[in-house]
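Q: I have 203 residues here and want to know how they pack in 3D. Can you give me a structure?
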Amino acid sequence: EILACTPDNGDALHLLGALKFQTGLIDDGLPLVRRAVAAHPDRADYQNTLGVMHKSLGQWDEAKVALNAAISLSPRFAEAWNNLGAVLEDEDRWNEAGEAYETSLMHAPDFTQALVNLGRVYLHRNRTNDAQTAYKQALEIDPGNAEALNGFGLVLEKMDQVPDAVSAYEDATLANPNFRPAFNNLALLFLRMGQTHDAELTL
């Protein structure tokens, strides 16, 4: 009804587009958010949402344009920095992704997702101790974060702390029974330990 009266209402366009995106209707949501951005190009939050949508479609160049616009409008926008890091990670630009996550955390030190993402980058770059620190910080903020628990398990496994790694993976599966990477990592670790039956039960 709001859009019928004021078709350029940015907040209404953005909200409706974001809701459609969250319910899996990105083809319906994307044009709405584009309209919001066109009507109000100075809104960093609209640009950020547009960037996230493009990322989900694998349209990395378009995502970077929108996210960089959000950052230009609001340089301390931690979420936009984190989302930019995720796009750069998708492009295998790990060093730049890490810098984006670090910048996100500079503006929001307790941003759990950025800590988890940074831990993954550190792990990929064989900075195991730094990865351990990032995941620990994430778990101090959100002890039930399955992604952080799984990442912490990967760190512990790499450090050959196998029993602790098993515990971390198991905690991740309990925290989120739908988070498949933790089940997969746990099963692989059981196989490495020669515990075939436990691996089969995990999968």
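Q: Anything worth noting?
A: The chain has a mean pLDDT of 94. The CA atoms of residues 98 and 121 lie 6 Å apart.
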